[in-house]
Amino acid sequence: MNHSLRVVRSGAWVLAACVLVACSRPEPPQEPVRSVKVMTVGSQLPEFRTEYAGEVRARNEVRLGFRVGGKLVARPAEVGQRVKAGQVLAQLDAADYQLASQAAQAQVQAATTQRDLAAADFKRYTELRAQNFISSAELERRETTLKAAQASLDQAKAQGGVQSNQKGYAVLVAERAGVVLAVEAEPGQVVSAGAPVVRVAEDGPRDVVIAVPEHKAAGLRAGLPASVRLWASDATHSAVVREVAASADAVTRTFAVKLALQGEQAAAAALGSTAYVQLQSLPAGSLASAQQQASAAPGLIKVPTGALWQQGQGSAVWLFDATSGSVKAQPVVVATADGNQAVIASGLKGGEQVVVAGVHVLTDGQKVNLFKEKNVPAQVSGADQLAAKTENQPAVVAPAPAKGQP
Questions:
Q1: Average pLDDT over the chain, rounded to an integer
Q2: Among 300, 320, 312, which residue's Cα sits nearest to residue 368?
């Protein structure tokens, strides 16, 4: 009886323990340890020389146009053609100007006749006044008439000269030798006075034109030395900054800088060819001192843009602590972007490890592991794969032939 009671009590205790275990809450699963990629940031000294892509142009590019308007009847000039001084580039219909010139010449002849008649009258009245046949007032009137006729003749001659010049303006000629870069009017088109018809690059010195951003253009001035590397010949030439634009371009917001190529070979560079320019944003004398100051000052720190995440109203990165194996949020101030990298103004220093992958699934103080690339297995040839398959496959036993079969 006592033994049965003990068994019942033991069963009750076991049952109670099972009930308590079943009613207790299960322990929450532990958060998995995530793997992250990190990089060690370092400071970089700012560069004092930057290479710009530019274009070789003639120092003097002239857009030639007619000084009078009219219908374009001929344009011998073509793109790429070499022209000489005085060569005809285009011609207008000069029929109207020819008629105007003839009319002006007729007016000159009429004014000459009137002047000659007034001169003859004045001479005759002068002789009559010497004999006291006329009064002095009459002689003065004849003299005034002669002066008016002379003035009319001078006016007619001037007008005739203008009409003659306009007839000559109907022919467009090259003022200097050069190369035709573009034509902007075709025969049959009516052009106005001053409208560009032909653009000519005159022979002579060559310039390289580059576009410089605003923060770089502030330190440039005329006379700064530079080196120019031509893409076609891969030759390097010396150059000097000749002109810096006073205002930025309305579209690109950059400043046009013209550099004068030095040397005879550089002056013969092909127009429109690509050139790479390295120039100094500081005078040569102060470049060494500026580099010394930069070496003493903190350098630039860059991190990939994927390492940044939003924290409140600013940006932050995750710093990896190798001692504890955890990450910590670090607010940073981004100065600017350089391609796929962000330039950090403050918040980081050289030598710190920053998480660059998996930043959006981390929490402050979370344990992490450093991501390691898996070892890529060596490539196996086809013969080895076939051999391995043959070894792993079970042997196939052919069934015994039936009676009567070979």
A1: 79
A2: 320
